Amino acid sequence: MKFAVIVFPGSNCDVDMYHAIKDGLGEEVDYVWHTEGNLDQYDGILLPGGFSYGDYLRSGAIARFSNVMKEVVKAAEAGKPVLGVCNGFQILLEAGLLPGAMRRNQGLKFMCRNVELQVENNETMFTAGYEHGEVITIPIAHGEGNYYCDEQTLEELKANKQIAFTYHGENPNGSLADIAGITNKQGNVLGMMPHPERAVEELLGSKDGIKLFQSIVKYWREAHVVNA
Q: Which of 27, 34, 86, 120 is catalytic?
């Protein structure tokens, strides 16, 4: 399986994401600059964290108009796995690939620490390696991770099982319904504020994040064996 790590001006977690795939999984991965106009050669698309375009206007608001985002939308519509982490999640929201919006953290402070997440849906291509209800440890690093949507959208997220992860025990940012990560209705686009790429080996304090990437690869391989 071959992954693309999309790099925007201001991305700073692209290296973490690259090494999670290359060293953690042993899969092929390339850095892909935001000006790229074709992602057809890639099987999975990864939007890393950081401060794309300095987070001017709103987090992810300018990156949403980058040339490469047309290809990200195309990949999502084709059913390819698309993962957006932290700023990547914010970009997916701005691009309309996921519902809702991000507000500043409830305490108006940047947070950087490990948190506990609960797996709410383990029937997606991103979460199949976890148990339903499993509690995992993943780091956060954000100032605008307070997820919000209207009541109708929240009910749809619940009804469609689009809530993949919630904060367990403590909600660090005030996110609605403790939401830490959601998918689109088709289940092939995941946005999450916590950083699974920073939790792929014990040296980092947790390796709970590696199961997410392993789940993607397992899904992709099984799908291609069936379709071969």
A: 86
